[in-house]
Amino acid sequence: MENCIFCKIIKGEIPSKKIYEDDKVIAFHDISPAAPVHVLVIPKEHIESANYITQENSKVIAHIFQVINKIVEELNISQGGYRIVNNCGNDGGQTVNHLHFHVLGGRELQWPPG
Ligand code: AMP
Ligand code: ZN
Fold first, then answer.
1. Of 4, 41, 53, 105, which alpha carbon lies 20 to 30 A from 30's?
2. What are the residue boundaries of the HIT domain, all occurrences included (predicted)?
3. From the alpha carbon of 95, which atom of ligand 1 is closest?
């Protein structure tokens, strides 16, 4: 998708601190971390938001959660705990319209969010 910042990261057109990649997904460090560990895991397919998950494209969601399992081990936060966040739409605080899951950890996180 043109003009999508995450599609550009996938294509290598803008740099990122990538920590995982396979044929379906990539994961990279968030540019503006909200916790000591803050990574984004995204499908390579441009899916606008959680609103656009369908029967046809939803397999990648299960795969993303398996990838997150690997990543949290490697980043050493699996035992301490972490949070997986998806922001959807305006009220959800979504700023990049390419589906992504935040993985946050490395400190005790507050709940509920503001
Ligand atoms: P959201 O607000 O849920 O849409 O999350 C978008 C996230 O993307 C924010 O946490 C941003 O800090 C992050 N972000 C935006 N641009 C970049 C980039 N070029 N590289 C890494 N993370 C980015
Ligand atoms: Zn995109």
1. 53
2. 5-114
3. 4
